[in-house]
Amino acid sequence: MQCALYDAGRCRSCQWLEQPLATQLTAKMDHLHHLLAGVSVAEWRTPVSGPAQGFRNKAKMVVSGSVEKPLLGMLHRDGTPEDLTDCPLYPDSFAPVFAALKPFIARAGLTPYNVARKRGELKYLLLTESQQEGGMMLRFVLRSESKLAQLRAALPWLQAQLPQLKIISVNIQPVHMAIMEGETEIFLTEQQALAENFNGVPLWIRPQSFFQTNPVVASALYATAREWVRALPVTHMWDLFCGVGGFGLHCATPEMRLTGIEIAPEAIACATQSAEVLGLHNLHFQALDSTQFATAQQDVPDLVLVNPPRRGIGAELCDYLSRMAPPFIVYSSCNAQSMAKDIQQLPGYRIERVQLFDMFPHTAHYEVLTLLVKQ
Fold first, then answer.
1. pLDDT, tens digit, for every residue of 195-229?
2. 334 annotated active-site
3. FRET label pair with 322: which of 32, 144, 342, 352, CA 20 to 30 Å apart?
4. What is the pTM of this model?
5. Are β-strands 328-333 and 303-306 bridged in parallel, bridged antiparallel, or unpaired?
């Protein structure tokens, strides 16, 4: 992938950009082999990769500069702004949106937030695209509601320029810290959820609900989990840290009883909506802490699927799973190091198979799916 920002030394987010993709993938596999060196793995599946560029379905842009000449991108460690609207990781469909947003910021009088001076209103622009229909969700992260009326008044112009914007909202983040969003979300459109579809499974994207950034590889990840789970004798399943329900919705059958747990209510609303569309009545999604939910249960399912944040599932949940011993565990991880640590705390299990998913090309990061079987 050619990147003018990288060549000019202005952005180093893609640390491995100068390495061929095959070399990158080999290095990631070597890293995963090293992490699991002390554990017996019955089967190593061929790693899965996707496009080298234009693959991201979302952009998280720091807004800096002036109201007349805003910059959309990031801040370097020294506070220097960098415009990233030409980043080749974004699809071509993002360019006209960025182009229209810059004059709109001036029209709406949304002064970019100055971190050093703690002044201004507009902190971030968050853009997400659906692969299903090309519809987009745009979120303005503001310091307060003081410019909300101005934004509303200018909005018809933006909507006329960009009819692909199906959802527009304002998030209020008043804290002077590097926190992406606050608790308050104000919708400026009637529609509040963006329809998506992976492998024939309807999914929904709402503000404040996590969704994978690489749709091609994410689709393969979900499809693989479905293949693995449906080959097992499973009639009762938990989907912990379930997000919008991608894994559970892919794996479920009309006969299967499934409980999905996720701390974020917005994500649970998405998962519930998908289950209703699919007509799956044995699926139940709840907004709870996954560890607290699991450790309070006595009825152990046939399979527990976990997809935790980077910190992993932790000692308490590992201890519970070891004691309750469900026949199968499927572990999806965005941090193989914490996953390997967790597996060390599940001594009663063997690794049946492992597969790497290159969700983040040009970086050292990757996702991994692991099937654990009770010995």
1. 999 999 999 999 999 899 999 999 999 999 999 99
2. yes
3. 32
4. 0.95
5. parallel
Please check if 11 is assigned to a binding site.
yes
Alpha-carbon distances of 177 from 37, 80, 344, rounded to whole Å:
40, 17, 36
Does 3 belong to an annotated binding site?
Answer: yes
pLDDT in tens, 259-306: 999 999 999 999 999 999 999 999 999 999 999 999 999 989 999 999
Q: What is the CATH number of domain 58-191?
A: 2.40.50.1070
For residues 167 and 164, give the distance between their C-alpha atoms in angstroms, rounded to a whole number. Answer: 9
Sign of the torsion formed by the C-alpha atoms of 88, 93, 99 and 105:
negative
Can 4-52+214-374 and 58-191 be said to share one CATH topology?
A: no
161 in a known ligand binding site? no
Q: Considering 242, 270, 318, 334, which one is annotated as catalytic? A: 334
CB 229 within 8 A of CB 327: no
Cα–Cα distance measured from residue 108 to residue 88, given in angstroms and rounded to the nearest whole number: 28
**N- to C-terminal Cα separation, the chain:** 45
Report how far residue 375's alpha carbon sits from residue 348's, in angstroms, rounded to the nearest whole number.
Answer: 6
Whether residue 297 is annotated as binding a ligand: the answer is: no
Rounded-to-integer distance, Cα 99 and Cα 113, Å: 20
Q: How confident is the model at residue 38 (pLDDT cuts 50, 70, 90)?
A: confident
Q: How confident is the model at residue 93 (pLDDT cuts 50, 70, 90)?
A: very high
For residues 293 and 298, what is the distance between their CA atoms, to the nearest angstrom? 11
* pLDDT at position 121 over 80: yes
**Which superfamily, per CATH, for 4-52+214-374?**
Vaccinia Virus protein VP39 (3.40.50.150)
User: Would the annotation count 196 as a binding residue?
Assistant: no
Half-sphere exposure at residue 211, Cβ-oriented, CA atoms within 13 angstroms: 32
Write out pLDDT tens, residues 72-81.
999 998 989 9
Domain ranges of the chain: 4-52+214-374, 58-191
Please name the residue ranges forming H helices in 125-245: 148-161, 215-230
